[in-house]
Amino acid sequence: MAVQSARMWCQQGLLLAALGLIPGTRAGACTSAAWEASATSHKAPLIWKNRDTDSLVSRMVFVDEKPYKFVGLVDDSAPSGRIVYAGINERGFAIFNTVAYNLPSVAGEVHDLEGAIMADALRTSSSVADFERYLTANLGPDLGAQTNFVVFDAAGEVFIYEVHNHGFEKFAGREAQGKRMINTNFSRSGAFGKGAGYLRYDRATKLVDDLGDKIDVASIYNRLARDFGHALVSAPTLGELARHDPATPLWYASVDTIDRDSTRSAIVFQGRGPGDQGELATMWVMLGEPLTSLAVPVWVEAQAVPAALSQGKVVPLLAQSLRLRRALRPLDGGERDKYMDLSLLENSKKTGILRVLREAQEDIVKRTDSFLKSRHTSLELATFQSALAEEATLVLKRLADGAAVPEDRPRGATDADRMPRGKPARE
């Protein structure tokens, strides 16, 4: 890709939006959190996001740009890497966002360019300080932001920037209570009670408080990203599910929950420990609804992304996750896909998928931790990440086969054919 100016990249994102080439997103969705290094098990910063969007199909890309290469999560309709919804570059700068509906928005100004901003920041920013300079230089009616950007860099600190077209507020993880910050779809600097996601914020806060300083990648995926509990309404426990006969569906509406019908991926960035320039920062990627998928590591230093996350009309790992999703959410039409059959997760016949997914996730994380104890070449990194992605795909395939979900649906494609096209994605 040729070097582009920041303005040109944003103009291209706006053009795609105007042409309706970026899929739309339902409002009020994403859930995220950020932990300062001292608040995690490995003493390295962690930031996590469950991405909620109407864009069912996504993939990973490696963008060979200048000055900085990066890996990023993109929608299938815009795979060039000029619009990115989470990513990390070769200097260790990582970023994702959650839209904040209580930040100022002026009618007639540019909006919905958060994906283009993040792609441009990954290409041009070597640090959080660079990103702040980028924001300052581009403030104005054409910025196109109403969002919380969550970032860290190689220095090992985490920050949230609450950004609108005409200003921003910055919050540091080291200054937050418990050295961690939780985000949904409102901002701290905006009007309280406005925006969205307050019930998800309450649920995530409780789960994070319960985990204390035992936060690591596996616990984020197994205890947070896959959580279907509710802040106000009691959900069945796994013990209760284990007594349920799977011959009878157990319907449950995932409304105002962390894992929900609109959750399409879950990303975790594991940074370097403060002052430790020898470690690699890792982007953990889970394509698909967390209750039906597995996360695997990706490194920009590998100079590539695994084929299981990047190749094909629907990438292989996501294709198997979508098969499982059809078993979890078999009802079509209207709001019926909000309801999932919890007997698929755990049941009295011990055929539930959740235990398998949790154990497989812990195994993937442990093997990755062991692998990273020594230094590796780009080829070794690429080989390892591809092998894990292929293994994860096979685990999901076996589970989908066991749930008797056909490889090819009668309609001849995936759920992606039902998804709307139009507005640029917001999250």
Q: In terms of topology, how is this protein built?
A:
Blueprint: H1 6-19, E1 31-35, E2 46-52, E3 58-63, E4 70-75, E5 86-89, E6 94-99, H2 114-124, H3 128-138, E7 146-152, E8 158-164, E9 167-172, E10 180-183, H4 198-211, H5 217-225, H6 238-241, E11 251-253, E12 263-270, E13 282-287, E14 296-298, H7 307-310, H8 316-328, E15 339-341, H9 354-371, H10 378-402
Antiparallel strand pairs: 1-2, 1-10, 2-12, 3-4, 4-5, 5-6, 6-7, 7-8, 8-9, 11-15, 12-13, 13-14
Structure description:
There is one protein chain. This protein has 427 residues and is of the alpha+beta class. It has a single domain, classed as Penicillin V Acylase, Chain A (4-Layer Sandwich), CATH 3.60.60.10. 29% of the residues lie in helices and 19% in strands. The chain has 10 helices and 15 strands. The strands form 3 sheets. A 7-stranded antiparallel β-sheet has the order 3-4-5-6-7-8-9, covered by helices on one side. A 6-stranded antiparallel β-sheet has the order 10-1-2-12-13-14. The chain has a two-stranded antiparallel sheet with strand order 11-15. A hairpin with a 4-residue loop joins strand 5 and strand 6. It is globular and about 60 Å long. The chain starts with 5 loop residues before the first helix and ends in a 25-residue tail after the last helix.
